[in-house]
Amino acid sequence: MSGIPRFTGDARPYPGGDPYADYRTADFPFAHLPDLADRRLGASVVAANDEFFAERENLLIPGPARFDPERFGHKGKIMDGWETRRRRGADAGTPHPADDDHDWALVRLGVPGAVHGIVVDTAHFRGNHPGAVSVEGTCLAGTPSPGELLAADVPWTTLVPRTPVGGHAANGFAVRARQRFTHLRLNQHPDGGIARLRVHGEARPDPRWLAALGTFDLAALENGGHAEDASDRFFSSPVNSIHPGRSHRMDEGWETRRRRDSGHDWVRYRLAGRSVLRAVEIDTGCYKGNSAGWAALFTLDATTGADPTDHTTGWTPLLPRTRLQPDTVHRFPLTDSPQAPPATHVRVDIYPDGGIARLRVHGSLTEEGRRRLTANGS
Fold first, then answer.
1. Domain ends where: 148, 183, 203?
2. 172: enclosing H helix or E strand
3. Domain range for 368
4. Count of structural domains, the chain
5. Is 33 helix (H, G, I), strand (E, B) or coil?
6. Rounded to 5 degrees, what angle do the CA atoms 339, 345, 351 make?
């Protein structure tokens, strides 16, 4: 966790004006990875021991927490986060909570995976944030209930040890454990409020489910696809383009700035595994005056030793430069074309710039791809 700033202690009382003016944050080295606890991926806070002041579900809302200084309810200040009541000791002689007293919330990840970093965001919780937090992870098959998750025989791995945190701050933690997790337990010591939880990592879906599907979207984040890199992410991240479902707004896709040179933009994806492709969809939904003008697709098989980061060699053309229409789903069957070689990566070049809402790459894993996926997903 070296190199990541630590924020401790209270923030100043709200001074008026921009509530984020004195917000403490940093550039975290894992922030480019997708948030496995994104509500849009199906993540959920399945239980919490206390949510007296603010509901646990707020933890996973996309976007930053909001603050309205005038908003109060019957229980007090309404906060955009998860906030528990103040803990007390056993009696007048011991008014303070015991050292091991704490509140907890159980989080089901939207996509199981290896966790690289966690952000416990206490935005707008200035003097009512927890003194410390800890995070644990476990991997359970199926859809366990809160009671099953809390059973005594469930093994939990410490991802973040009990660590002091600051109020009104993005408290970031690098995670060393790289095994697959399906659920997290967020603990706050002893009580208080947390605005958001972000869990950055790499998706590792259930290989048995993908084997049962046979043909599926190999680029989808929920199936283990990954947006490795892009030429530009000025308006929005390329990770958005492999989210589930269709986009409903422009900021739910991948959009680049306007180019003022003779170049073009691109995004490179790592597929769920070595695969044979059957069809591709390029969706420019919600991009009307700013959709990409043309697109070309290329594939690469990294198992041959080819370097995906070198865009000059090893790439096989899959789709020639093709005109795209605004706000449209473009479908390209590949079964009528000469069969493309197996691929581990796909690159989309757009000309000259613009937006793509979704990319779908339908196909089936090769035998080698299935073996590797099973080894990584177990």
1. 203
2. strand 170-174
3. 207-377
4. 2
5. coil
6. 90
**In the numeric block, which tokens belong to residue 251?**
């900021």
CA-closest candidate to residue 40, choices 320, 237, 316: 237
CATH at residue 323: 2.60.120.260
pLDDT of res. 354: 97
Q: Is residue 120 located within the same domain as residue 256?
A: no
Lookup result for tokens 């509901």: 55
> Which tokens belong to 281?
């969809």
Taking a C-beta distance cutoff of 8 angstroms, is the pair 111, 33 a contact? no
Under a CB-based contact definition with an 8 Å cutoff, are residues 297 and 281 in contact?
no
What does pTM read for this prediction? Answer: 0.92
Angstrom distance (rounded) from CA 288 to CA 296: 19
Q: What is the pLDDT of residues 190-244, one digit of tens each?
A: 999 999 999 999 999 999 999 999 999 999 999 999 999 999 999 999 999 999 9
**What are the tens digits of pLDDT across the range 38-59?**
999 999 999 999 999 999 999 9
299-327 CB burial, b ≥16 within 10 A, e <16 = bbbeeeeeebeeeeebbeebbeeeebebe
Q: Output DSSP code: residue 291.
A: B
Is 175 domain-assigned?
yes
127-136, 183-192, 203-212, 316-325, range with the lowest pLDDT: 203-212
Last residue of a domain, one of 152, 174, 203: 203
